[in-house]
Amino acid sequence: MAKDVLIAGGGLGGLAAALACARSGWQAQLFEQARVFSEVGAGIQLGPNTTRILTSWGLDTALRRVAAFPRALRVRTAGDGAELVCMRLGATFTDRYGAPYATIHRADLQGLLLEAARAQGAALRLDARVRSTWQTPEAAGLHIGGEGDLQGEALIGADGLWSIVRQQVCADGLPPPTGHVAYRGLAVQADLPESLRTQEVNVWLAPHLHVVAYPVRGGDELNVVAIVEGQGNGPAEDWDQEALAVNLQSMLAGTCTPLRDLVRAMPGWRLWALHDRRPMRGAADMANGRIALLGDAAHPMRPYLAQGAGMAIEDAETLARSLATVGGAIDIAAALGAYAQARWRRCARVQRRSQRNGEIFHAVGPVRWGRDLALRALGERIVDLPWLYGATGTAIGRST
User: Fold this and answer.
1) Which of 389, 282, 396 is nearest to 53 (CA)?
2) Among 56, 18, 123, 25, which Cα is nearest to 324's?
3) Confidence (pLDDT) at 178
């Protein structure tokens, strides 16, 4: 008899959890507050640690229909555009890690997870806002506005940065601002001058900011993100604020011509202010009794390692494996505790590395000079991350 796992949140992490749990024999019930499944934003980078899991879920063909698979990642100085390091991706990465490095539009990734979760039998509810959560030794539940209480054997909070469920686990208030703002733009590559089109990941580093560009939609579109030090101009929870191109262009005054041309070529810009939390300090930050957290609800991280979606998908795989070990005399709390124990150290390491990367990317003075010297001297050895791409940490009991 299938057991019920309730999942709050229908973003990438929630859908991944619903799919993975349903594949493990659980009846996944997902509750999303929006009236339609939609994703704000544009691109996501998926390392081999993530694409390996998607392949194990049978999504390899679907991923190849919508993603791009960049040939290389190039890091440049924003001032003169000089290349600091090139890391080969494509076949090189696939051979090295057994899975490819992909770049994908957020809506495309959500679409393939949504289709797969439905096909696996997950129950997906829209217009279902979680007002509160509760648990007893025998059950966990949530209160949906206008409907009352719903209960299951376990409750997973995958409701993002501003998680309601998190307060049941950690009770640590709202996530603080980082002092960084992300601008994002998306363009059809055929509409761009040929010199600006690319099938690679390109990164430009400048004092107090950096810019990343990479292909999505099978390479037909180009996603550009600029992260600068500053504050947003709207509500903290708004991931889709209006942005003025002239503001970003003024911040890039003095940078190389190709970068300024790329920013000017974007048909429009949106922005959001980045918030995060301190790196996790133990399994108790991720699970409490029959309630556990997943993705940004558990470990929001700055985008300087491109692993937010990846860590959520890893969480989902580990969660499903942990719950799959439950049988006979059910100890849900122990299973969720094992999930948290298997995940928290790895996620905390990624959180810390993401923060550190932000400091390095935006460095000034001697730190910037030392960074550039190290990148040129060590080459791709300094940007390739075997501990991240080669070990997913999904097995129960692992804490890599």
Assistant:
1) 389
2) 25
3) 93
**Token pair 């922005």: residue:** 271
Residue 267 tokens, joined: 């048909």
Q: What amino acid occupies position 395? A: A
Q: Of 14, 286, 298, 28, whose CA–CA distance to 158 is shortest?
A: 14
152, 254, 278, 298, 322 from 168: Cα distances, Å: 16, 48, 18, 12, 21
- Residue spans of the domains in the chain: they are 4-67+104-174+277-356+384-389
The predicted pLDDT at position 2 comes to: 58
Residues with a catalytic annotation lie at 214
Residue 194: DSSP 8-state = G
* Per-residue pLDDT, 326: 63
Cα 320 → chain centroid: 19
4-67+104-174+277-356+384-389 has which fold? FAD/NAD(P)-binding domain (3.50.50)
Which of the residues in the chain have pLDDT under 50?
Answer: 1, 329, 393-400
- Predicted local confidence at residue 168, as pLDDT: 85
Number of neighbours of residue 35 by Cβ within 10 angstroms: 9
